[in-house]
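Limitations
The structure tokens in this dataset are predictions for the assembled complex, not deposited experimental models. Users should treat interface geometry with appropriate caution, especially where small molecules or nucleic acid strands are included. An illustrative entry is reproduced here so readers can see what is and is not provided.
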Amino acid sequence: MAVQNTAMAEEVKLFGAWGSPYSRRVEMALELKGVPFEYIEENVSDDKLKSPSLLKYNPIHKKVPVLQHNGKPILESQIILEYIDETWKSNPILLQDPHERAMARFWAKFIEEKCMPPVWKALLGSRDERGKAMEEVRECLKTLESVLNGKNFFGGETIGLLDIAANFIAFWLRVIQEVSGLEFLTAEECPLLIKWCDRANAIAEHLPVECMPALWKAGWIPAENEREKAVEEACECLKTLDSALNGRRFFEKDTVGFVDMSA
Amino acid sequence: MAKEVKLFGMWASPFSRRVELALKLKGIPYEYIEEDLSNKGPSLLKYNPIHKKVPLLVHEEKPVAESLVILEYLDETWKHNPILPQDPYERAMARFWGKFIDEKLLPTSAKVGLSKGKEEQEQAMEEVHDQLKILENELKGKEFFSGNSIGYLDVVANILFWFRTEEEVGGLKVLSTEKFPMICEWIEKLIKIDVVNECRIPKEKYDDYVKLRQKASKSASS
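Predicted assembly:
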């Protein structure tokens, strides 16, 4: 069912943040289904800098992404993905079979609850926590390698809910690896998952990879003496990215805030 | 669909009870297997190797884990007596509040039990109250969380039965009728429904169970 261009056109707005994997998930789903939408970039580094619309639509969590469809707000990336699939039927991201759907939901939850938190711990935790966290991440990735089970995508032949939910692994994890030097995802342990990352990244449009490390360094790992240089590099990157990103606004600040990512 | 449905559960787990409630509401026949969580059976470990937890539903030998995932599976497999609404926006809202209960309210209330000292406990209680206020608001103008009849969100909100009405923790009322009249009224309405009552955790048995667990953790740490 194609999106119809009727007199009463559908209003679809996405409040997002370019550095947030949760926000990117929703963009991916809308793009996959060919749903036209208006994108509003939010400054998530500080509640006071968030737009009044965001705070009105998501007063409880005050986070991105928020999808607004014909005036009604939908929150939480996984919930938004299901809403999108139920509302726009082209290119379904969930399979029809209830058990397959349950598995996709189960593994999406697994990624959020088991895989993502230890990545942050491995980066930012105390010395004792870091080693254990690395192990946890590696075990999660090995599990996902077996879930993939030789398929092209988690969704089978085409991208599905789980591929979208795993965008953190496809893109952000590689950036984090480059910035931190920590080797979460290796070809020895997860050869199929690495190939999947390449496939997933080729389909989903992302920010140029070469800029992300500079931006992450500025926001995440600010050892005092390196900070100024990192911020300078980041600002240079932002200037060159500006035109490549179709006129999306970037906030003119000396830091890029990733800390307050959405739920 | 006269195929085999098994539920591995535990009587004191509200997550397990949720699934039982959904199965009963939808009239799905099932075999219940009580798990001793201190000595998990080989079937449970085989079907849920990742989390090794209850509840676990096994349908036609295929396992489904995580209570919220199970609820959706039940609704998609057995279409009669749906527990989720039909409209996509209403479904999104039900899922949102379900997530709020599991990912915000539950961990916050766990903090109350884990608090050390009165000040920490009071702060944790205040957070619980703030979140309960938000939920209370969701009942405005409705018979049940799901509208005129009980549904997904009422099933997920079963954990509110745990917050026993008027009970005190360290001199503070958890769920007073004064502060949360609508939630308390909702509880009263719900426990009059037979199937809901069947899926409640019996209070005295639960209190004994909690005492035993506290004892066990104390002796384990000493």
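Some entries come with short summary sentences. For this one: Strands of chain B lie at 5-9, 31-34, 56-59, 62-65, 168-169, 172-173.
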